[in-house]
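Retro notes - structure team

What went well: the batch runner handled both jobs without manual restarts.
What didn't: labels got mixed up in the shared folder, which is why I'm recording both outputs here explicitly, each with its sequence directly above its tokens.

Job 1
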Amino acid sequence: MKRRTHENIVSSAKLRMQELIDEILRHNWLYYVTARPEISDHEYDFMLKELMELEKKFPELARQDSPTNKVGATEKKSNQIKHEIPLLSLDNTYSPEELMAFDNRVRSAVGNKNFKYVVEPKIDGVAVALLYLDGQFKFAATRGDGFAGEDVSSNVTTIKELPLKIKRIKGVTDGALHLRGEVYISRERFAKLSEQMTEEGSVPFANPRNTAAGTLKLMAREEVKRRELKIFIHSFAGRDSDYFKFMMKLEKLGMPVVPNRILYDSAEKILTNLKRKEEEKRSYLFDTDGLVIKVDSYRLRRELGEKARSPRWAIAYKFSPETAESKLLAIELQVGRTGVITPVAKFEPVHLSGTTVSSATLHNEDEIKRLDIRVGDYVVVQKAGEIIPQIISVKPAEKRNPPFVMPNKCPVCFSLLEKEEGKIKWKCTGVNCIAAVRAKILHFGSRKAMEIDGLGESMVDELVSSGLVKNISDLYFLSADQLISLPRMAEKSAKNLLKAIAASKEKSLERFIFALGISGIGETTARDLANEFGSLKALREASIEDLIQVSEIGEILAKSVYDFMREPAAVDLLDKLHSCGLKACIEEKKREDVNGPLLGKKVVVTGSIPGLSRTEAEEAVRKMGGSIQSSVSGKTNLLVLGNEPGSKYSDALKRGIEIMEYGRFLELWNSHSNR
């Protein structure tokens, strides 16, 4: 009987281990390869911990290919790079007791030797390995399965803070320098990208980490640049040096190393600062999910060694994710500037990550169905990137209300809603929907568009609700008497607003194109369009084929611009703005010399040109017959190389693009301008 009972226990353990292995491997794939995790780090760690305990209890059942013996997940692609030094993971701990147990293990292994710990933020990003040879950047690769990862060199070189060449110093940067880092997106940039994706009808990424992971895998380099990846270097290999001192050396060379590193001589002192460290993370510009605690001494690290998937000399102390529970009061619909309908959850106010929140976007109808969220239910809320509230789960009420049904009419103008084939977002069909008009005007007057001071949310609400402004062009026909008639509008405020509106008539073509709010057209693309066509008239007349010739504009964006310029409402708007005397609408830039030495060439300028500002250098290119591009692409013909060039230089080298040093460029310009 006892033998049979033991056999049953072993059989049950074997089944449970198989279940855990299958689940962990699936979640590895979702996290490392698709960048769409379905569970929290906390839940994943507990599954892994359960598997490790079962393997320890039943060693005869432990498998060689168990996820406890490897890190990450393998993605079968041709552009794989083998890691000369494997990328290990870190063991995680969630309690002070586990942290002290780690300290006891370290001290037991090294004896009575004195040593220090380095404590630093655990960046919540995407792990990458970088190789520098004699100070020159060679490649970057993702973690992959720890032994080989995907080549992401092209996308990593878009990171402005990462130097592609550093000073060669013996013992520091000479020979092969292996660096490890975390690629991330700042909280501020994540918030802006989420807002843009929502406006365009796309489902935003869940958090900054997923955004960075998805961005690293993109093929469109211009889009990668637009998203503005960043990196922190947090470790190195191939150097016989203590960690803290070597990181200071890298920092002095301009390497973006992980900030806020602190030395402690005991684990007890670390414990006394845990609460303060957890509160500190709210002030960071980047996401962290805990602290990394590592032995500083290189000699002791070698003595302690590594396990199959993690070093024995370091551990991650994970902060518990801050969440709040609240009752769902309503699901409201918001109308964006393109007419896109976005459902928003309204719940009882709760305090979360330093602020009070009472609403969170539900993105689209499909998300509502996926969550099966209903008024009266209780929702669990957390902040993505410590900024954007999001609902991560739903706790159904005992007596549930009926499921939410998407209405067929706009909640503001009552026009019919429609959903294009293959799209997930509903749109309002009303041409003059007040909500869409309000959003368009706010965007038009924003800081990076036409920069109309005083045209904030409350002012736009007043102008639209009063009927004074029904579309963008109405702004330029406002009078002081009309504005003074509005509630709480003083004469001085009215004059200041009119002055700001008048000043906006002088804004550049690139700002104006961005201000129009054409789907998919951001600041960089607006600049490229302005540089290529030189006038609004030329842009309005451009064919799809003409538009595709512009740097980094493919068929989808070209069609978006082409269709916008031919929409009856847009045609009417542009005609009215032309009659108002906007400089961007009436000015036509003509090249002074169509026979210049750069005739027909698409040119990128990188670095500083002695004697010329960037604006003057780009104007010189235009006067010599060339057109300016903001980034290197397959359409670039020439790169003008100045002092201290950025990543555009390495891009041009990789693509085999002609490179002209600034001395030769200045010779051409002097010769051309003195004719």
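Job 2
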Amino acid sequence: MMSPPAAPSPAAEISPSELRLRFLDEVGQQTRSLVGAVEVMATTARMLGEHLNATRCAYADVDGDNDRFTIRNDWSAPGVPSSAGVYSLDLFGPQATSNLRNGRHLVVRDVDRELGDDGGGRMFNAIGIKAIICAGLVKHGRLVAMMAVHQATPRAWTDDEIQLVAEVVDRCWAHIERVRDAAALKEQDQRKDEFLATLAHELRNPLAPIRYALAILRRDPDPASSRNAKDVIDRQVTHMGRLIDDLLDVSRINQGLIRLDIHSHSLRAILEQAVEAARPALEEGKHSLALHLPGTDVYVRADEARMIQVVSNLLTNAAKYTPDGGKVRLSANVSGVEAVVEVEDDGIGIALEDQGRLFQLFTQLDHGSHRSKGGLGIGLSLVRTLVELQGGTVEVMSPGLGHGSTFTLRMPLSEADAPEHSPLAVPTVKNTARRVLVVEDNPDGRDMLVQLLEVCGHDVRSVGDGESALSLAATFLPDVILLDVGLPGISGYDVCRRLRESREASAATIVALTGWGSQEDRKATSEAGFDHHLTKPVELADLERVIASHQ
């Protein structure tokens, strides 16, 4: 009688591919819950090194020069020293550099026999490597990271081992990408929440002095107190207007909607106007301003209004982060084909590690007590973007906290020695009364505007919707119509079109009075038949100018 055949051993039934899949699954389970890229790499390196019974398993980041790489951490077998450090890839020989930079794995079974000293063997031997499998990560044509399994003795790597290392590394990097994306999304959400909280703070802050000033105007008849209260209201409203303008500029830049009018302009005129714009901030901090300009005027190719905005922003920033009674210096000179403008202060300075991210959008540095100075973290980001759109550069230099800062702005010189366009003559505004129709759905805004125009001597009527505007225009026969675009019922665009078709108001000067101010918004009002487009809040001088333009 024949005896039954012996049962096969469990190990004999498991193929190398099955073992590989089981190990990959185990690595996935061990790293799935990890939330940090460093933890993912460390766990993967340990498991891979132990599974292959290797001497060491290391991972490295490659610098932007595509040569120097840093092994920040590794797994090593007991008694084996770490390979952590900074290395030059070129020292590991042409085979290593060629394979890794071109996205191919480096597989060496015997360093001395295959590479020799001149082929990189000397460097491998220096850190105790006699055999290696190294996989590189190439992104956008550049080597950015590596992971390698080291052996202290020659080793005949099998195809299954090489494939295993490749798959583990690919999965590890894919996992790390997901982890980093999740972290970036979390940081983005956190920055958004911080931004919204800061925005609410920045918009609420000016309301307190405005309310206090209004209370003074109601209760204190003293003319000096009244003047001071009015000045406070004016300053705070101006501050809020600039804040909103900055937010709108960020939106326009992100949508590619910002337009620049680049011509040859006097640098001296730009700087002088920037100083005037920043003067309230400088005077509030009791700072002294030293102005150093070239003996002869210099002309730059730039958008004049935007350059005034850039320089005044830098001056205001210097005033904000310099203790009261500090010194601010504004200088300009010529270097080659560039005009160089420097804004220097003796303020609180910037830590070296923060200078690289200072121009990033919504960046808020922790300056201790100066954190209360406020701001949305958009001013310097706007500065850099506007400067670069005009072909210039801006950079910051500070020795560190407590040692002040210097912002250096470089702009291309104009080939012309004079402005390409002569300044437009500003027409003298005659104090001639006009019949003005105000169409505004905000009652407070409408009433205040009506009172202001009546103080200026105009005959004014007002309504809060489009249908009423059409009816009143037919009987009032206005010279000028100040028309809000966002009206209930009929839009301001449709009201304007119908006014143009009417006999009574077709010749009126129609002005769009709106909070929307992009190029597209201006194009839309022009196509609807508006003569002018004014963005709220409107300066009285601008309002008087367009009213006086009616013939």
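One thing worth noting from job 2: The longest strand covers residues 142-151.
We'll revisit the folder naming next retro.
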